[in-house]
Write a structure and sequence with these properties.
Distance between the termini: 36 Å
Order of helices and strands: HEEEH
Strand content: 25-35%
Number of helices: 2
Number of strands: 3
Shape: elongated
Largest sheet: 3 strands, antiparallel
Helix content: 25-40%
Length: 67
């Protein structure tokens, strides 16, 4: 069973896919297959392939900087 705080590669690609699908009104036929999101814009077919790197966030939080 995975930790509920865990971010997976699939979650990242799904979020990008949904953002493209929902955010760009003139984009047609957005679809996803594995690590590639493809859509049509005007007379062009655009494919985006992802290489996802997930790391722990070591950036200090505001409370650590300004106690």
């Amino acid at each position: 069973m995975k930790n509920s705080n865990e971010v997976t590669r699939d979650m990242v690609i799904d979020e990008v896919y949904r953002s493209l699908r929902d955010g760009l009104n003139d984009v047609r036929y957005v679809f996803r297959k594995k690590n590639k999101v493809t859509f049509f814009k005007k007379d062009k077919k655009v494919s985006i392939t992802f290489r996802v790197k997930i790391e722990d966030n070591d950036t200090p939080k505001w409370d650590e900087i300004m106690p």
